[in-house]
Write a structure and sequence with these properties.
about 190 residues, alpha/beta, Rossmann fold, three-stranded parallel sheet, two-stranded parallel ribbon, about 40% helix
């Protein structure tokens, strides 16, 4: 998702700061157009974010959820927008089943955004989940046609794809959980 966001931001002529969780992903983000990249494995995220944009950010795209939302909001510039599109940190890092006590604690820790505070801070919080937009086919079709057009024009580069045969699904899942992958993982099935 981050690779696509960097490229879309560059199409919109935005200065883009990427955030990665491992050093081997820094160059990939820069190649896609990130003006700067914060590597959370080597430097504190929010100190680096403040150094790169001392006045705050116009837009912060946050898929992490409870672990970062409060700070993401705090680091917005006046009139800034926090766009929430996931809750990655609420999911288990490895091993499948969620921890229900952790989910309950995360729910309690989830920031609540008061409309009066939003007005006083001159900030916005937006959120979406594409899974719940299937009934908005015209919007999705228009967006998909635009994205496909940009791919065909070479303005967006598709992510690298690593394939695993279906019988190696466990190995593919471990690779995904490790955080070492760049691009997309695809399971393939033998035909015939």
């Amino acid at each position: 998702m981050g690779s696509a966001l960097v490229q879309l931001a560059k199409i919109a002529s935005c200065r883009m700061i990427g955030v990665v969780g491992a050093a081997h992903k820094v160059e990939a983000a820069k190649r896609l157009g990130a003006d700067a990249v914060i590597d959370k494995s080597h430097e504190p995220l929010w100190a680096a974010a403040e150094r790169l944009a001392p006045e705050g950010y116009d837009v912060i795209l946050d898929a992490n959820g409870v672990e970062t939302l409060r700070q993401s909001y705090r680091h917005l510039a006046p009139a800034g927008k926090l766009v929430v599109y996931g809750f990655h940190t609420m999911l288990p890092r490895q091993g499948g089943r969620p921890s229900y006590p952790k989910l309950a604690l995360d729910f309690v820790r989830m920031p609540r955004f008061n409309p009066l505070d939003l007005c006083n801070d001159n900030k916005s919080v937006l959120a979406f989940n594409l899974s719940y937009l299937f009934h908005k086919t015209e919007i999705l079709r228009e967006a998909m046609e635009r994205l496909v057009g940009w791919v065909e024009e070479g303005r967006i580069v598709a992510p690298p794809v690593t394939t695993f045969p279906l019988e190696r699904v466990g190995e593919a899942h471990r690779a995904l959980e490790s955080g070492s992958t760049v691009g997309k993982l695809v399971l393939t099935m033998a035909t015939g």
